[in-house]
Amino acid sequence: MSEQTQESTFVLQRIYVKDVSFESPKSPEAFLKQWKPSVALELNTSNVSIDEDNFEVTLGMTVTAKNEAEEVIYLIELQQSGIFLIKGMSEEALGQTLGSFCPSVLFPYAREAIDSIVTKGSFPPLMLAPVNFDAIYAQASARAEAETAPIQ
To answer: Domain 9-125 falls in which CATH fold?
Structure first.
């Protein structure tokens, strides 16, 4: 008997902005004041199966900049998506790929889009720090495992 080993395949098909929103509720007053914002970043990821081997992964990012009076200076909501061909992976490897690796691929595109939107809004550039999606995925997996574990 011969045993065939199936090799896994990973191909990035397309990257695109699925949805974007920019609000600057304190303009033009915000431009007249000294710029010392506090910036908050919220991340979320989701994925859907398009067909047997193609998946859409979406990295959602919300960036909120507030002034010293805690007033929102600008708010950006972005959904950066990609279509990935993935086959031949175990269920665990597929989960890790969709939950960590794919968002890591999408993040630089989302970061560039957000920086571009901020500067087009006439605000100083915003270069978001890198994100460790492996750690986020591990935390989410541990939390999900703890929630489904039987109570002893």
So the answer is: Bacterial Protein-export protein SecB (3.10.420)
Q: For residues 49-72, give the mean pLDDT.
A: 95
CA distance readout (Å), 85 to 6, 10, 92, 125: 15, 6, 16, 34
Q: Which parts of 24-145 are beta strand (E)?
A: 38-49, 54-66, 72-87
Give pLDDT, residue 39: 95
- Structural tokens at position 39: 């910036």
Mean pLDDT over the full length of the chain: 91
What average pLDDT score do residues 102-124 get?
A: 96
Q: Inter-axis angle of helices 133-148 and 102-120, to 10 degrees?
A: 120
Cite the DSSP H helix spans in 2-132: 29-32, 91-96, 102-120
Domain boundaries, given as residue ranges, for the chain: 9-125
Residue reference for tokens 């395949």: 9
